[in-house]
Design a protein that fits this description.
Blueprint (H helix, E strand, L loop, with lengths): L1 E11 L2 H12 L8 E8 L4 H10 L3 E7 L3 E3 L4 H11 L3 E5 L1 E3 L14 E7 L4 E5 L6 E2 L2 E2 L3 E4 L16 H11 L3 E4 L7 E3 L9 H11 L10 H29 L3 H10 L8 H18 L12 H19 L8 H7 L4 H11 L5 H10 L2
Parallel strand pairs: 1-2, 1-3, 5-12, 7-13
Antiparallel strand pairs: 3-11, 4-13, 5-11, 6-7, 6-10, 7-8, 9-12
Helix pairs in contact: 6-7, 7-8, 8-9, 8-11, 9-11
Length: 368
């Protein structure tokens, strides 16, 4: 393998997110003598299948598998991971968040106790910080970003979906005799714009995981857990049933009707990404109309166009927080009527962590 190359492998089903993820990769400092390549995998059957395709398509020794909604904000990321791998050849896998103690029933989604990540769950951005000030050895790392210095086949024979691929791969590395680690991060290395998580198939793959690694784990499910899972799935069905009509209202420019319809489903907004996006878009359109403006809600924009422009604005604010220059200064966009202060104020509370809001506001005011 080429130890002077780093490959970034990204499974993607959203070109807008893939493009934004790539902007951050291309902003990284590349050490002298090192080359990078970006390998997007479009339309993969599963995360494992996509990652196997990417792994086999490059001779890079160092591979970084990351979600399309992960933005690497540590400019020295490449130098930092290579340094760790070179200092201990037995480290085969690195992540930015991990767990030192996986539960016996493999309910791992709340068990990460090492690492630092800025996470945006759609409706709130938070800093997940374990508070450890040194490199930690762990059982597994969160799949938002996994860097490797060794190649092991991802278990697409068992995991043909989008859950437990990361923890499975950690088990494969551990059983092959490699260490798994989470580095010390004085400041988070990543911003994960992960939105509202979908747990619809989580227990299906948790069971497969427990069966695959039965010497360590045993599947169990309480009645309370089963009832909550059933209720969650019923809510998803309800959302999917109403989404076509909601989108039709936006598609046909009946924005005020759409605002009213969305508000009726506010209790469900934190359970589905598309519903949440339309909920925030409705809030922005409503506030703009009160101010006599039509910026986001310009005539002729259907639901897809509204979501696209909404995401562009979110991405612009995130870039300002982490010193990635936007293509056009926000002040110019405001003056042109392309975006509004109302939209910025609503999104600031959703996507910008408290510590960065003053900085972002200053950049909006002064950038030209």
């Amino acid at each position: 393998m080429n130890d002077k190359k780093v490959a970034f492998i990204i499974c993607s089903n959203d070109q807008q997110y893939l493009d934004e993820c790539t902007v951050y990769i291309r902003s990284l400092i590349v050490p002298p003598g090192i080359t990078i390549e970006i390998i997007p995998i479009i339309g993969a059957k599963s995360m494992c299948a996509g990652y196997n395709t990417g792994m086999r398509s490059t001779d890079a020794k160092y591979k970084v598998y990351l979600h399309q909604d992960v933005f690497i904000i540590n400019r020295n990321f490449i130098t930092d991971i290579i340094k760790i791998f070179c200092e201990d050849e037995n480290i085969g896998m690195l992540g930015v968040a991990g767990s030192t103690d996986l539960p016996a029933d493999a309910k791992c989604h709340f068990c990460w106790d090492r690492g630092v990540v800025y996470e945006c769950y759609g409706y709130v951005v938070r800093l997940a910080d374990s508070g450890f000030n040194k490199l930690s050895y762990v059982w597994a790392v969160d799949g938002l970003l996994i860097a490797t210095s060794k190649d092991l086949t991802w278990r697409e024979d068992r995991f043909d979906g989008w859950d437990f691929y990361d923890i499975s791969q950690a088990m494969e590395f551990m059983e092959a005799g490699y260490k798994i680690a989470v580095p010390y991060q004085e400041h988070s290395w990543t911003f994960h714009d992960n939105g509202i998580l979908n747990y619809e198939n989580y227990d299906k793959y948790r069971k497969i995981f427990c069966e695959t690694y039965s010497r360590y784990f045993e599947y169990s499910e309480s009645e309370d857990h089963r009832e909550k899972n059933d209720e969650y799935k019923k809510d998803l069905i309800s959302i999917r049933n109403i989404m076509p009509e909601m989108r039709r209202l936006f598609d046909t420019g009946r924005y005020m009707e759409a605002v009213g319809f969305v508000s009726e489903w506010h209790a469900y907004k934190n359970k589905d990404n598309d519903l949440f996006s339309l909920y925030v878009i409705a809030a922005i359109i409503s506030e703009e109309l009160k101010a006599g403006k039509k910026c986001l809600g310009k005539e002729g924009r259907d639901a897809d166009a509204l979501i696209y422009e909404y995401q562009k604005l979110r991405f612009m604010l995130i870039r300002l927080a982490f010193d990635i220059e936007p293509e056009i200064a926000p002040k110019i966009l405001i003056e042109r009527g392309d975006i509004s202060e109302e939209a910025i104020n609503i999104l600031m509370d959703i996507v910008i962590y408290d510590d960065y809001r003053t900085k972002v506001k200053e950049k909006i005011k002064n950038l030209r």
